[in-house]
Design a protein that fits this description.
The structure is a homodimer.
Chain A (H helix, E strand, L loop, with lengths): L23 H14 L12 H8 L3 H13 L3 E4 L3 E4 L19 E2 L10 H12 L17 H10 L12 E4 L2 H12 L5 E4 L5 H10 L2 E4 L2 E2 L2 E2 L4 H8 L3 E4 L13 H14 L2 E5 L13 H4 L4 E6 L11 E4 L2 H15 L4 H11 L3 H23 L5 E2 L6 E5 L6 H10 L2 E2 L1 E2 L13 E5 L6 H21 L3
Parallel strand pairs in A: 3-15, 5-6, 5-9, 9-10, 10-11
Antiparallel strand pairs in A: 1-2, 4-12, 7-8, 11-12, 13-14, 14-17, 16-17
Helix pairs in contact in A: 1-3, 2-3, 5-12, 6-7, 6-11, 8-9, 13-15
The structure holds a DNA duplex.
DNA sequence: AAATTTGTCTATTTACATTTC
DNA sequence: GGAAATGTAAATAGACAAATT
């Protein structure tokens, strides 16, 4: 059978079937993955329609479907009915923002690190805890879901920020990432689809990739979910879940409007969509709107990590799970962790019952405000999203910059920032922007040093690079 | 189309296709799962051959394959070419051995808890650590793989127990369960097959079920892997991994023979099988044989949890990963945990560099020896597998007992034990036996109280139950 | 040792749903 | 607003391989 007639065929990808033993579909999926990773196919490129490729290779349509599906599960491509299949826009970035080296020769503005002031106070507090009677029992095996007292502490405390839950619905995880992973493993299957913002938390991306769950970018305008046709969209995209950071969204810093929350809650209830609400920034944010949880309490799993407002080193996060999902998530948490360190859980519990907690929150908040004031000063002439208590900001780059290029150049200048591509979901080309974490540098002085360098980079470019 | 002609057909399972909208295969898979859970199909029951069921339902063979495959991934049934498909023998047990209640009205001999003596010493040690300069930096975000010093400590220390690895190959996990889960998520895909003993660690079973990986019982004789035809077996079963506890296997307490280790290493290397070596009991065991890691260092991921010999509450385990797997496992650990608590990791690191470690190991070992002496005393006339330093024992029941029945009766008498069914892999009926954890009760007196009750149960049965 | 039983797996058929133009 | 383009997914076909008898 000759395929010579296709030689002049206009096709963006022309794989070849070698005569090896391997099944055609694994072989070609591997070839596709390789060609994407090698840069032969670039982010945003359109692949041949399934039927055309089937014709060209003399295979059946559904065999091509399978090849594409395999690569889609790895997050390499994304398909849209009626439009075609495209290379994902984030294929050239790593979504594990590894805390690379212990000793860094650049200023860290990339990774989100909370302000570290107050940690000596935590150390002193722990000294006190150690003198308490029976404390050594927390070094033993304890219930994976923590003690009743620990759960009660949390269910009481989160009232303050608008979440009404009983102690029975509080679960423990070893941090926010762990909580998201447990929810995904417990409530979703490979191939399930979760909707989120077109730019979203990179940790979610790595979880989705690992488990084979697909992330779908929700229609958005100016950082806000378009809620007028959301129901129709979710229905046609067959979404089973949502992931949201309603306050100070990572990386764009947007906080959800009231109507947005209401609509998302309604749609979730109507279509029975599971909402993963990451309340990571709720404690600091100026938000006055109720959490998503309050609009769809039976559909929402609400995650509170203590990393940002208390300290990251103890690895404790809380998870509010509605009754119908509690069993499954409890099970996946158990299967992944056996249990959260009861020792750390108890230390955190005691901090929650002490005035230290508010002191820590207050101090860190002040530090954030001071740092953001500095950032505002330096980038007064740029668009710099984010409010006074954000730990990171979203810097819109002048049109002539490519985000990745800027990240590279910034690093050469001694500053680590993360470009928009790293947060991209799906095929839409990410905007020209970078994320700056103002609380990551050791001191305000370091932050200023970094900002000076970035500013200089932007300005120099304005002069030397011609469009 | 009438199927009346099949009315007298001899078939162990006769599902019905309702006219609902759901696809036939999900519908029937659900029905099968439900019938198994409801007890209509019992452990060990043979299902109709795929072709017969296809005939009966007027569907194609491969549709039935799909139905069976779905249930097999959930661990409900297991299929063997040439033999047929059978209901798994553990479908009536839960494999999440949850640490149910804070207050128990029975003596715990089920869950494996290490001896808790020595925990006050750990508390005191931590007090000392807290006074060290710069200790608060371990409350911050740190490298997910720990500091170089921490990794060096471990790579040096494990030399003692026969594992030669460089610091670069040491990874951190939040406990042994977390390590196994990370390896499975990082190196296996749903549908992949992992071979292990026909009775194996229940934590592995829950991981396999959650991820959709299949556990395959290896041919075994008297607790030892039959190594003469192992290669052929692995080839035909298409195994991608092994899971072993080479010392004091859970639950049968067997320690691998030398030839067994050599053979497993050889087969793994030849067929490129990934070995998960759970060295959980290596520190206590009297074993003199090298670890599996030393026979196939490029194929073996070796896990050291500190839970049993130091304390469980800090949630730290170490993982030795060969170069070619390090990246993937590091990635899945990052995706699941972000990082292990650097605070706990540092405490443990300092204990490893102090004489306290050996004190703790010594004390716990002595406690185990003392408790096992008691157990031997009570069950001198029974078969009770396990040596002096095992934290659990494997009690073979008189033939007239069903394991599950014994577990139930023991609980009624106030003692929690775990029956063999809970550890069963595949379809083979588990032997009549239960696992007793001698180190779980609070004291030796409690242990004796429990043993008295179990002994009475066995003896009473000898008199009152007629075969 | 050959025929039979039984499960596995890749590839195909076909109906369907959404989006675009 | 209807036709064309494009992806989705359930069910089928058929060759293959292992285990049993």
């Amino acid at each position: 059978m000759t395929i010579n007639s296709f030689e002049n065929y206009l096709m963006s990808w022309k794989p070849t079937i070698s005569d090896r033993k391997a099944p055609i579909y694994t072989q070609l999926a591997g070839q596709l993955a390789q060609d994407i990773r090698a840069g032969i196919l670039r982010p945003g490129d359109k692949l041949p329609p399934q039927r055309e490729l089937a014709d060209f290779l003399d295979l059946h349509l559904s065999t091509i479907t399978r090849i594409y599906k395999l690569c889609e599960e790895q997050g390499l491509i994304c398909a849209k009915v009626g439009q075609g299949t495209f290379v994902s826009s984030d294929v050239n970035t790593s979504d594990t923002l590894l805390y690379s080296h212990e000793t860094m020769d650049y200023i860290q503005l990339g990774t989100i690190l909370p302000p570290y002031n107050g940690n000596e106070k935590v150390v002193n507090f722990i000294k006190g805890v150690l003198t308490q009677p029976d404390i050594q029992s927390f070094l033993e095996y304890r219930s994976p879901s923590g003690t009743y007292v620990q759960r009660k502490t949390i269910s009481d405390w989160i009232e303050r920020i608008g979440v009404h839950a009983s102690p029975e619905n509080v679960l423990l995880a070893t941090g926010g990432q762990n909580a998201i992973c447990a929810i995904t493993l417990g409530l979703f299957r490979p191939g399930d689809r979760i909707g989120t913002n077109p730019l979203s938390f990179s940790g979610l991306k790595s979880i989705a990739k690992m488990i084979g769950v697909q992330l779908v970018p929700l229609p958005e305008e100016d950082g806000h979910i378009q809620y007028d046709n959301l129901e129709q969209f979710c229905r046609s995209e067959n979404l089973k879940g949502f992931y949201f950071v309603p306050e100070q969204h990572n990386p764009t810093t947007h906080t959800m409007k009231l109507e947005e929350r209401i609509c998302i809650g309604e749609v979730a209830k109507k279509l029975n969509i599971i909402i993963i609400e990451d309340a990571i920034n709720r404690v600091f944010s100026e938000a006055i709107y109720p959490p998503l949880f309050s609009y769809a309490p039976n559909n929402t799993l609400c995650i509170f990590s203590i990393s940002k407002f208390l300290c990251p080193g103890l690895r404790v996060a809380y998870l509010i799970a509605p009754d119908r999902y509690r069993g499954s998530v409890e099970n996946s948490l158990y299967t992944m962790n056996l249990m959260v360190s009861p020792w750390n859980a108890e230390i955190v519990n005691r901090i929650f019952n002490s005035p230290l907690l508010d002191t820590l929150i207050h101090e860190k908040k002040e530090e954030l405000i001071a740092r953001n004031r500095i950032a505002d000063l330096y980038f007064s002439s740029q668009i710099l999203y984010g409010t006074a208590t954000c730990s990171f900001r979203w810097l819109i780059l002048p049109d002539r910059w490519e985000s990745q290029k800027f990240e590279t150049k910034a690093k050469e200048a001694g500053v680590q920032v993360f470009c928009s591509d790293r947060f991209a979901i799906g095929k839409a080309p990410p905007p020209k922007a970078v994320r700056l974490c103002v609380s990551a540098p050791k001191s305000k002085a370091e932050l200023e040093k970094a900002l000076v360098k970035l500013k200089r980079l932007l300005t120099r470019a304005d002069r030397s690079i011609s469009p």
